[in-house]
Amino acid sequence: MFQPPRCPYSACSMHLRPATDFAKPHGFFKPKCRTHRVPRFRCRTCGRTFSRQTFRADYRDHKPDRNQIVIILLCSGIGLRQTARVALMSRQGLAKKFRKIGRHLRQLNRNLRGPLPDDAVLQFDELETYEARRNSRPLTLPILIERPSRCILGMRSAPIRPSGTITPNRDRAIQADEARWGRRPSRSRAAVHSVLRRGAKLCEKLPRVRLETDEKSTYPTLAARAFGRERLEHECTSSKVARDTRNPLFPINHTEAMARDLNGRLRRESWLVIKRRWFLNLQLEIYAAFRNFVRPRFNGERKTPAQWVGWVDAPLSPNQLMAWRQDWGPRSGHPSSDSASPIHPTPSATA
């Protein structure tokens, strides 16, 4: 039977350091979207009531049974409209569910991360996409992976200035955008540094950090700032080398190709293109969680990238990704736990 791990109300003393018997049963209720009763509890300290559903990520969902199929479809190259048709949902309802799932999995991706193994090798690259209009609103997308496991450590989109051949039609589109929103900023360096910093937090205990990139001129400075120049081993490969399996950067190139294929919003010519960059970042959080914790590293294997780096002991299912709330940080329930046991337990009040 489910036993609440803590009082869900942050003002209660049983939230951070719960006693063993801090809550007592307080009946049941029958939700419309489920076939079973949900137990309720009352905190002995603050007197407030709550239920098992209070700890769930699908708390207050109208159609929680659709979460699994929505995650699978969104990580299979399908857009929101077709996902809504397949999941038998309205487009507006699916858009709200997509945002909720994206915010939840962003927190889960942060909570389940841990130190990387001593033999970790990082690879980094940027791919280019766009928002709304290809010829005038490009985006850069830095991606950092752990090479042997193919585990995605960080992804984040950022606006950049239009580059390349400027035709008369393209120049008119750029001028129209600048007249409406102002000159488009270039935030490539800030995005690269942010993604590298995420990887640096996972390498704090490593005596040395191996990083492999192409020869873009800004990478050495930003990498040294993120990881520390004294322990960084930065290897560069020319982007003119054939992008086949013999290329040292094949793992990151393959990861980028998979991301374009399984996220319709990243395709170069597609009507699934995003209208706002913020929604692309939510899609990337969903994809990173699916790629790291659900899908095996390679076809024919059983272990996921997160298992290879030691973050989890077994693959997670899409339903488990949406199991327990993750807004309590390391105190959030572990996705594979049946009773919302915390990812990193804290000492109890009676210890």
Brief summary:
By secondary structure, the chain is of the alpha+beta class.
Structure, described:
32% of the residues lie in helices and 15% in strands. It is α+β, with helices and mostly antiparallel strands and 351 residues long. The relative contact order is 0.15. Residues 347-351 have low confidence and may be disordered.
Which key phrases capture this entry?
six-stranded mixed β-sheet; 32% helix; globular; single chain; disordered C terminus; 10 helices; alpha+beta; 351 residues
SSE topology sketch:
Elements lengths: L22 E7 L8 E6 L5 E3 L15 H8 L5 H7 L4 H21 L9 E10 L7 E9 L4 E5 L2 E2 L8 H14 L6 H15 L6 E6 L4 H9 L4 E6 L12 H13 L14 H18 L10 H4 L9 H4 L30
So how many helices? 10
What is the strand tally?
A: 9
Content of β-strand = 15-25%
Sheet bearing the most strands, described? 6 strands, mixed
- Indicate the percent of residues in helices: 25-40%
Give start-end ranges of low-pLDDT stretches: 347-351
Mean pLDDT: 92
Categorize the overall geometry: globular
Order of helices and strands: EEEHHHEEEEHHEHEHHHH
Radius of gyration: 23 Å
The end-to-end span amounts to: 23 Å
What is the SS-derived class? alpha+beta
